Amino acid sequence: MALDFLKFTDENSIRVPAPDLHKQVSAILQAVGTPADHAETTAKILTKASLMAVDSHGVSNVVRYSRSIESGEYTVPQTVEVISESDTTALLSCGNGLGFVAAHQGMEMSIAKAKKHGVGMATIRDGHHIGMVGYYPLMAVQEDMIGMAITNASPAMRPALGAAPRLGTNPIAFGAPADQENPFLLDMATTTVAAGKLGLARRLGVPIPVGWAVTAEGQPLTDPPENRGNHWSQNPLGNTREQGAHKGYGLAVMVDILAGVLSGGGFGSQLNAGENMSWTMAVDISKFRPLDDFKSMMDEMIQSLHATPAEPGEEKVLVAGDPEWEAEAERSENGIPLHSSQYDEMRTRAQQLDAELFI
Amino acid sequence: MALDFLKFTDENSIRVPAPDLHKQVSAILQAVGTPADHAETTAKILTKASLMAVDSHGVSNVVRYSRSIESGEYTVPQTVEVISESDTTALLSCGNGLGFVAAHQGMEMSIAKAKKHGVGMATIRDGHHIGMVGYYPLMAVQEDMIGMAITNASPAMRPALGAAPRLGTNPIAFGAPADQENPFLLDMATTTVAAGKLGLARRLGVPIPVGWAVTAEGQPLTDPPENRGNHWSQNPLGNTREQGAHKGYGLAVMVDILAGVLSGGGFGSQLNAGENMSWTMAVDISKFRPLDDFKSMMDEMIQSLHATPAEPGEEKVLVAGDPEWEAEAERSENGIPLHSSQYDEMRTRAQQLDAELFI
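The joint structure predicted for all components is written out below.
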């Protein structure tokens, strides 16, 4: 959920139709040697994130991915290898290429296994950024399944009571289908805020609230810091011991276990910046009980939550996914707003690479 | 993690050996008609919680369970029914009896299915309190598996931005084995604190910190409130919008979906006080990669977290489960401390029911 002071305005952004952005992302990736199918998968996921207003994980990131490919940090073309497999499980290597490609395949395999056996699970090593983690549960939701995905990262978060970063922002995403209502879609960093929110605040030149980040001495930071390092950390969800920082921290370790240790790809402090191990799961609802009954109970639950009286000063109670579904409807109609600096950067990058210009 | 001001002291508590408490719990349950095997399962789980210092979910709860059985709120003897089943999934009915019995069976089935197929999952309707949720993942950990369990409850937590309770404290527990180190064991309410902490504060006559609970008007409560109702709520983990309240809230809804909607037993606001639906999962690590490799990487991760410099004023960084494993070692040696009022209550209840006295 974006905070108001981090929002784009008409003055600082340009609207671009989603299909054009998709084409631009794919063209840039292909211009640095990404095979067409991998470029299309990545473009699809990045464009969906931008449509859903998860701008920190949207199309503009293609510029840095293209640089990582060019520099050899990403191995492209990549080979996604199935290292081990059972009825319900798979261990994949992303081949040090685009994280999107292997995470997408991991969720496809999870869904196929769930269709046969009820549950499917994949864990992915040798990976990089997978973008908006919520995309992958949505793949399961489209198949009328429950979906879950997580990803770990190099250190940004301190452990509760700790004075140095040891864990990534380690997001957890979970989705489930409803009938008349939009699907439930939770997509949350296990820090108080996603790292992207700090970057966005820095770009927009606004201070951050106390509780988002601390110095190595545990003092609150309100100027969004420049670069990762041991001199500052993001706080785990909960912030303080009394308010449950050990819970955000514990969830982040759970993410490291499923994505990093189960895959063998490594936990937070073993990873370099830009390395991300991932995990996906799909659950076939109809193996438990009739799908229609599940979906209509989801509707009832979502309606009951929406009907909760709001606290004074707030308009209404939301359900996870509401802002994203609303944004998707609006941006599909009016185009995706890009910060003008991001728009310029994408065009410049495409021109540099002699890629066709679509925006 | 218990906060210091909520701890038992030598002045307000009595030490009792764990085996005697186990016998006492089982005897009380059998005195109200619980079959011996169900009483033993329940006693085992309650005693483990007390050994691990999860006192809010420990042996003293047997008094209220025995009353729920006597009043007919719990159906005892109960029949745990397998409503549907596949290679990897099971839907159970707890038969409105002791929640422990069906949750235990659900995790046993999850483990058996995981051994065969890689992953096993059970969801349980028509249930009641299952005690310390972390017990169930530990069953999987003892089999060298990853385990997870969750349970929902009648409303205590408000949604983010909401002014009335709509969700239970909906805990999530997750465990994974290590080699030389203790297993990782996360067991967390998705509220800032477990409901039991408020009850404990009330019993000890101490105020609660701002952020744990609010009035219907969103004003902080510092006197631990008496009874559940629409006039106050616990806060979701994160507390405020800016600090991520939508995350604690979103996790609580995820719990309602897996335990309440997937089972059909009902989500938070459909439940009466004392009703709890549950969900368990086991994952066979060796289906992904060699167990020994997994366990030694767990050791490395835990050691790296322990070695994180502590923030000023704190002694050391902990890993989820540390306080519980330490307590278990100490209490196995010195006995389990019971608040004297709880000790008296258990003895009085046993005498009322003509159950043998073991404590």
